[in-house]
Design goal:
Elements (H helix, E strand, L loop, with lengths): L1 E5 L4 H12 L5 E5 L2 E4 L3 H5 L7 E5 L4 H9 L12
Antiparallel strand pairs: 1-4, 2-3, 2-4
């Protein structure tokens, strides 16, 4: 299981996140404090406090989805890849 920290600042980012999550064939949890919701549920994601950082738990691997998560990382936690 992998964990990544993200911040969803806009409605479009939430839509992109949920759309990409739905393409994965494994469970994705989004956590904030003690709340854990299904990352494939747009209503669940919108129910969270999106002003704060969220922890995403991946129960599998998908390179494209992980790249999206890296792009949604808060600026202070973003690690740029050097090519």
């Amino acid at each position: 299981m992998k964990e990544k920290v993200i911040r969803l600042a806009t409605v479009d980012e939430v839509k992109a996140f949920v759309s990409a999550a739905m393409k994965c064939d494994f469970d994705i949890d989004v956590c904030y404090n003690r709340i854990v919701i299904d990352g494939k549920s747009i209503l669940g994601v919108f129910s969270l406090d999106l002003r704060n950082d969220l922890v995403v738990r991946l129960h599998g691997e998908d390179e494209a989805f992980e790249e999206l998560l890296d792009s949604l990382a808060p600026a202070e936690k973003r690690v740029e890849k050097i090519a």
